[in-house]
Amino acid sequence: MKERINRLAKGIIDSDLPKMIWTPDVIEDTVRVGTTVKREIFIGSENGLNVKGFVYSSNIRVRIPNDNNTFGGLRNHIVYEVDTSFLSAGDEIEGSFYLVTNCGEKEIPYLFHVDLATSGRILGNLNTAKDFLEVAEHDMDTALRLLEYQDFTEAPFMQDMHTRALYDSLKGHGSRQNFMEEFLVALGVKKPIRLMVEEDKKVYDNPGRRLEDFIVIRSDTWGYIYLEASADGDFIHLPKKSATQADFQDGTLRLPFNILSERLHVGKNYGAILIKTARGITKIPVEATVNSSRDAERAVFREEMREYLELRLEYESGMYEDALILNQMQKELDLMKMTSEQLLLSLLQAEIYVLTGRQDKACLILDEVRDSVLTKRLEQKELYCFYQYLQVKIWNDKEQKDSLIRLLQKYCSEEDRYRNDFILYLMLLKVNEELFENPVTVLISMEQEFKDGCHSPFLYVECLKLLEKEPGFLKNMARFELYALYFGAKRGMVSRDLALAAAKALNGAKGFKEIYLKLLCRLYEMYPEQELLSSVCSMMIKGNCRGSRCFEWYDKAIKASVSLTRLYEYFLYSLPEDYGKLLPREVLLYFSYSTELDAHSRCVLYSNILAYTQRDSDIYRLYERAIEQFALEQLFAGRINSRLAVIYKHMIYKELIDPQLARALPAVLKSNRITCRDAAMRYVVVRHGELMTEDAYPLQDGTAYVPLFSERDIILFQDSFGNRYLNIRYEKVSAMEAVDELLECCFEVYPDHPVLFVNACYEAMEKEELNGDNAALLELADQKMKLHPLFRSRLMSAIVRYYKKLADESGDGNRNSSVSYLLCLDKDALTRDERSGVCETLIRQNYYTEAYEMICRYGIEGIQIKRLLKLCTKMVLQNLFDEDDRLLHLAYVVFLEEKSDSVILDYLCEHFNGTVDQMYRVLMQGIKEHVETYDLEERLVAQMLFTGCTEKMDRVFELYASRKKTSENVVKAYFTVKSIEYFLYNKTTEDKVFAYLEAAVNNSVEKDKVPDIYLLALTRYYSTLPALQDDQLKLCQAVIDVLIEAGMIFAYFKDLAKFIVIPGNILDKEIIEYHGNKEIRPYLRLRILPEEEEYHYEDMRPVYKGIYIREKVLFEGEIMEYQILEDENGERKTVEEGSISCKEVTTRTLGNRFACLNEMSLSLELKNEAALREQMEEYLKKDAAVSALFTLQ
Questions:
Q1: Which residues contact 557 (CB under 8 A, 6 or more apart)?
Q2: pLDDT of 206-237, one tens digit each?
Q3: CA-to-CA dists, residue 375 to 269, 345, 407, angstroms
Q4: Per residue in 634-653, pLDDT tens?
Q5: Most buried residue, 64, 230, 319, 488, by CB count within 10 Å?
Q6: CA gap 400, 384 in Å, rounded
Q7: Which uninterrupted H or E stretch holds 545?
Q8: Contact 221/232 with Cβ under 8 angstroms?
Q9: With contact defined as beta carbons under 8 Å apart, do 1117 and 1089 qualify?
Q10: Quick one: CA dihedral 22, 23, 28, 31, positive or negative?
Q11: Prediction pTM value
């Protein structure tokens, strides 16, 4: 700028100005929210001349970094930054770049749309949960990616507290498909998927070698599905054991399975296919029947044989009359003989005859089957032995008997005998009575048979018979004796004495076995005596048996006055929930002296006492102190159940609550019993929406006690894989009732309890208007609590509204110390409206520095202009008018809104730079308001000179010259520009400009050293005057002489001929003068009428800065028509045309010969012969004088 002014001051006119090009012409772009992006403007020169200047931005969010807003050169890249910090999607940054250059001022408008990233734009359209549902329904992959996107919580519909709590609870737990399904269902925009099996049961009759079939499963809606299939039954094969929603076609899944016929047995085969989902297990029974007539007959025979053996066993036990049992045995045998003709049946018939004393009939049968038995004696040795056994029973032959005993002993001693050969051992016991002479040996042999796999009831019966005779054997009771006794007890085959002996033996047993307890219970059922009852309870205590099924035994023992160590403890351990009455007095008295109970038992005991005794009873007084201490212990441990609830209800009262108790008590008071019947669920998870925390409680037997402090708490269930579910059926029952008073007391005593504190904040925020206490509570929560961002945002909004209301009530300018909270507030976490509210409140309370810092960080969006006016004024004064770019921008914003005061105007006048129009507006307003304008006039004149924007320069220069100390160079440059405008561009100019030029030329001794433009402008000005004074005539003559000598001749010279002497060779000719471009050569076409009809080209001579002339002699009556052409885009186009005729010029110079010729021509036309003669004589005299004076060589 300084260089250009210096050149102008010297009268140097740049023949050419740079031709600036720039890109882009208009800027419109989309930028991501919360970022600072860099872009650039290109400014170049089209004609090889350097472009110089400054760039200004009208919006503070679009700035040139490092204050590097100057440029110069042929190619300039101006880097700028767009700051979208703390803006929201949908905002716009609008303004312009102003280029102030040596070739003029240009404006580049810009508009930046603030938006999220590509995925963010999708998020921005999710205004409701249904919008997200539509995305998931049409493009699940995109929806899943969005769900896991870090900015998903910025979606509009996610700004709801409940929605965010659901999202936070599910995120990061289990599969993302399950996350999506549960989230949409919980929001209420999607129905949960329900799977339906078309067939309740699959039944197959005689399936083929390998049967293939399907289970058809239908879903009633779209969404995430995962199921697992398993088979219960080895004849069912599942080729596919899992499926997802991708396996469903049009909502239907055909799950294949095979029936493996090779694994089917004859008759009915039962199995099932189990379909397991997160919602439970569906069982589809499968039944396959394999039928054949032979198999059916065998099945009937087996059933009839079983009935026969049952009767035979009863016969052996001797519990019933022999005749009755034998009669029933005969009937069953007859039924078997109707469908079968086996050899065994004949032998069994013979045995019945023997048992009923009909040996003759038995002999006949044996004779009939003798040959068959002997033939098969090796293959069916048990039938052969049975045949010989019957012979011995009939004939009682000693040799035959001894032979049979040896044979049986041989077979029983073989190592490879079959398991079914135990019947041979039983026959041996029947035949060889001598064995029982040594019962120990018999028992040992029986035990060996048992170990070898013989669990026949007939063996147990023989053992019982032996034990009845020898009860002492029970001292060393082994598994065989136990099983035999248990079998006998079930069948009523054990005598009282044997039962007591068995109980006595078991009392001395080491350790606990389930078979011991089962045997004792059976024995007591047979003989309900105290000794046996004592044995039962003793064994249960030994086995640590608890629970409701054990309670009845302990209860019986206490009622029967059984004396047994730890009986009362196990009575208490097993006490059922629905006991419903006071414990026996002896139990209560016993425990009043015993302190070895575990917490559960004490809970049971104390809750029973509190529920069924009066406070004035002796029992209550015995336990009161212990119950109170126990209640406190459990409270501090945070435990709760139905019994503890009874204890707390009776023992916890307001006066007992201290800070330590108040810390633990609320969670207990607000506990709820959650019962979930879904076996797959392992935990109950509770999410407190206002906090960043959640708690998980394990489900024990489908039940958990969880504290729920409000209806806003989210309840979820979690399986063993970490998946979480919201759509699970459960039951919820409050553990304690009427706890509000205690909760209030807890909060009073310990106000730092997180959830109570948050609930109090929530209630305060629900009020239409906060009071001071409410605001203090919310401030404390913000400072101390780890709150959820959304809740914190709501909380801070409420606080900001409160202080804004407080500022409204107190009025501007009154500092309120309570605003200190706003000063330390994390304003980054606020919304724009909240930040603007805080900023305005700080301004109103005179916290100007803090408010200004907020504006510097967050911008001025949303702040009222009157607040900005106050802040700007105070900050300017506070900074003692020191220059600050942001403050200067703020001041100009206020100025544009026509709200500025004298301080702001003063500040702008001192420091503001912008476009000519902007600076001019500031100057005029400053003068109007009578503020100090500093050097603004000089800066503005200089910028006008630099840019060429001189429309308002005269007014500004007038103010500059009249009000300020002027710069010589600026003044000279100003008059140079005015001379240029006047001479080159024919702009009207005030007379004072020419007065200055006149003085400048007069004061110059060497007129040829004066800038040409001064001389040209001044002489042209003289040509327009009606008359010149003497000094002006003298000055004009001198200047014209200099110009003519320099070869500069212009058409207006003829107008000066009336004042000064102009050479004849100039006056004799008409002059065509064209103001064009130095770089573009003009072409002149002319013709002189009436002689010439066609145009012809003639050259034009350049005389000054793109001004061209053509001199031509015209005689009276001639008209010269001309056209001036220039090349444009390869074609010559006419840029100017006109005509000139011969004119008589008023001149102080004596007439010349051309003038005489013109006068003679005119007299001839007028037929004035006298004048013509006179003029002809004058012309001859002058021609002769010229010939005499100037001899031509």
A1: 533, 534, 536, 537, 564, 567, 571
A2: 887 778 888 999 988 888 888 889 999 888 99
A3: 39, 17, 17
A4: 888 888 888 888 888 888 88
A5: 488
A6: 13
A7: none
A8: no
A9: no
A10: negative
A11: 0.68
Instruction: Tell me how far apart the alpha carbons of residues 514 and 543 are, in angstroms, rounded to a whole number.
Output: 8
Residue 213 has a CB neighbour count (10 Å cut-off) of 16
- pLDDT tens digits, 613-633: 988 899 888 888 888 888 888
Is cis: bond before 24, omega within 30 of 0? yes
Which residue has 């702008």 as its token pair? 908
Question: In a 3-state reduction of DSSP, which class is residue 1083?
Answer: strand
Question: Is residue 268 classed as helix, strand or coil in its secondary structure?
Answer: strand
Q: Is 287 exposed, middle or buried (0-12, 13-18, 19+ CB in 10 A)?
A: middle
**832 alpha carbon, distance to own chain's centre:** 21
Parallel, antiparallel, or unpaired: how do β-strands 27-32 and 104-115 relate? parallel
For the chain, how far is it from start to end, CA to CA, in angstroms? 59
Mean of the per-residue pLDDT values for the chain? 87
Tell me the three state secondary structure of residue 68. coil
Residue 685, beta-bridge partner list:
696, 716
**Looking at the predicted structure, is the pLDDT value of residue 1165 above 70?**
no
Summarize pLDDT for 900-915 with one digit per residue, the tens: 889 999 999 999 999 9
> Which DSSP state fits 758?
H
- 979 three-state secondary structure: helix
d(CA 143, CA 148): 9
8 Å CB contact between 907 and 936: no
CA atoms within 13 A on the CB side of 1097: 6
Question: How far is residue 359's CA from residue 752's CA, in Å, rounded to a whole number?
Answer: 100
Q: How confident is the model at residue 1193 (pLDDT cuts 50, 70, 90)?
A: very low
**Are the C-beta atoms of residues 424 and 411 closer than 8 Å to each other?**
yes
91 contacts 35 by C-beta, under 8 angstroms? no
CA distance 336 to 313: 18
DSSP string covering 276-315:
EETTEEEEEEEEEEE--HHHHHHHHHHHHHHHHHHHHHHH
Distance from chain centroid for Cα 1096: 83
Residue 59 has pLDDT above 70, yes or no: yes
Question: Quick one: CA torsion of 1147, 1150, 1154, 1155, rounded to 10 degrees?
Answer: 60
Cα-based distances in Å from 605 to 143, 268, 635: 56, 53, 17
Q: Please classify residue 221 by burial: count the beta carbons closer than 10 Å to its beta carbon, then call 0-12 exposed, 13-18 middle and 19+ buried.
A: exposed
